[in-house]
Amino acid sequence: ERILGGDDFDALARSNSDDKPSAIKGGDLGWSTPGNLVPAFEEQMDQLAIDEISRPFKTQFGWHIVQVLGRRDYDATDETRRDQATKAVRDEKAAEALENYLRKLRDEAYIELRLDDINN
Length: 120
Description:
By secondary structure, this protein is mainly α. It contains 5 helices and 2 strands, in the order H-H-H-E-E-H-H.
């Protein structure tokens, strides 16, 4: 109500936000790319016009009020490539770690063959 009544969003965020890192910045979360925030948060942002303030809404992290200050066209090509490269390296390291683990298990395994039992 205070925000809708004209009180300063920045000042209210500083004094009322439970999220200390964003409270210090007056509630400013900076630019966000799709997929970086929880879906309910992104849905609210997508529905708002520039400078429009949302009604309070709840996510698993608590209650929020959002004001969209701007939008920009975003080319995710570089970020997508970086994410794909990171995933490829992570997958390769995981496969290598699994292979090393299985090799260690085989090396440490004790297998006793009893051919006499098979022949009798």
